[in-house]
């Protein structure tokens, strides 16, 4: 059974308090809304204390072009991907030469050649490495990447798969776009870079017997909700990625999440009471509240989701990987884990894990 053997994540040195971002947004949007003081309360109600940013906040603004922002994305993403991959290899005590596959995940920048090829070149990974760039899955990308790594490792038990994910949501901010979605995004999204290593059965036996992290990947499933493409995503305009962020997301969660989870777990002869670790992407405070209402959670089941949101903000696809790192550090209980994230499409990605410390 494929296993997660190491996770690494990045604490950017430009992390700032939420109140600092609020003040900057107040200046940018002051003439856009007559009730700006009331609008700014969304920052206070976000349950976010700090935002993980890839650049000093003073460098944002000035109306950079789409190509400028994208060039910055490419440079930062490559540098921090390499740092994250090297850290992951060190944690797993394995050499880069054993990596057979690389998956690169993002939705906040564009590159051709794709970033995975640039990582391979910079790190001098195997020239024959299998590459899989994943773009456009948004917040669901981290879970989807792990599901695809699981498929690869089942097909090739000798596989050692590196997943690199970098989301620089702050670079997508358009400071002369005054929609409510852009305002909400300004209160919520931030930046992150993470890496996960997954090993097939034979690779684990050969290289990973001393690995401190051994998390079995059991099962995965994707769901696409029909006629919901306008709920979440990007509208690509001349100045960049204009955010689409529908207010109906919590309603969809309340309506569908429990039955989706019940069906998913039922395929593995489990139910929600068998899950001891909930690794749910914290899309925002309202999303977390909707999770809890849908599933009847009242005992802090989503504490780590709230901790990551509070200390980093919503980092799109990499957020669940930061959660995975925190669970490994101090949160996992023996038993099953359910990883879940929602993304553009509108879509739902779920992954069943099993942990034995």
Return the structural class. Answer: alpha+beta
Tell me the radius of gyration: 20 Å
CATH architectural category of the largest domain: 3-Layer(aba) Sandwich
Straight-line distance between termini: 16 Å
Question: CATH homologous superfamily of the largest domain?
Answer: Thiolase/Chalcone synthase
Strand ordering within the main sheet = 5-4-6-7-1-8-13-12-11
Give the overall form: globular
Query: For this structure, what is the CATH class of the largest domain?
Result: Alpha Beta
- Give the averaged pLDDT, no decimals: 91
Strand count, sense and barrel status of the largest sheet are: 9 strands, mixed
Give the amount of beta strand, in percent.
15-25%
Secondary structure tally: strands: 13
What fold name stands as the CATH topology of the largest domain? Peroxisomal Thiolase, Chain A, domain 1
In the predicted model, the low-confidence regions spanning at least 5 consecutive residues are none
Count of discrete structural domains: 2
Order of helices and strands: EEHHHEHEHEHEHEHEEEHEHHHEE
Q: Number of helical segments? A: 12
- The level of helicity is 25-40%
């Amino acid at each position: 059974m494929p296993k997660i053997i190491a996770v690494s994540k990045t604490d950017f040195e430009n992390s700032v308090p939420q109140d600092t971002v609020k003040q900057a947004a107040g200046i940018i949007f002051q003439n856009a809304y007559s009730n700006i003081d009331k609008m700014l309360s969304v920052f206070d109600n976000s349950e976010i204390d700090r935002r993980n940013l890839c650049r000093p906040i003073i460098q944002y603004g000035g109306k950079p072009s789409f190509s400028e922002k994208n060039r910055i994305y490419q440079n930062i993403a490559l540098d921090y991907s390499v740092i994250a991959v090297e850290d992951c290899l060190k944690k797993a005590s394995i050499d880069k030469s054993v990596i057979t596959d690389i998956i690169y995940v993002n939705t906040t920048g564009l590159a051709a050649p794709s970033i995975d090829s640039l990582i391979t070149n910079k790190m001098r990974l195997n020239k024959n490495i299998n590459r899989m760039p994943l773009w456009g899955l948004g917040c669901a990308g981290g879970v989807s990447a792990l599901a695809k790594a699981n498929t690869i490792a089942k097909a090739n038990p000798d596989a050692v798969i590196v997943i690199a994910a970098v989301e620089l949501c702050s670079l997508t901010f358009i400071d002369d776009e005054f929609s409510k979605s852009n305002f909400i995004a300004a209160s919520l999204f931030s930046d992150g870079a993470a890496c996960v290593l997954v090993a097939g059965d034979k690779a684990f036996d050969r290289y990973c017997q001393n690995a401190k992290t051994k998390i079995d990947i059991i099962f995965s499933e994707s769901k696409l909700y029909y006629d919901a493409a306008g709920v979440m995503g990007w509208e690509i305009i001349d100045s960049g990625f204009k955010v689409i962020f529908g207010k109906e997301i919590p309603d969809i969660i309340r309506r569908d999440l429990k039955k989706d989870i019940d069906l998913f777990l039922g395929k593995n002869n489990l139910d929600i009471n068998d899950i001891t670790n909930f690794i749910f992407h914290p899309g925002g405070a309202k999303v977390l509240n909707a999770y809890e209402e849908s599933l009847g959670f009242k005992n802090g089941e989503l504490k780590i989701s709230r901790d990551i949101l509070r200390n980093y903000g919503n980092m799109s696809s990499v957020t669940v990987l930061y959660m995975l790192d925190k669970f490994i550090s101090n949160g996992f209980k023996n038993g099953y884990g359910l990883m879940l994230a929602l993304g553009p499409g509108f879509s739902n990605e779920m992954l069943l894990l099993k942990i034995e410390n």
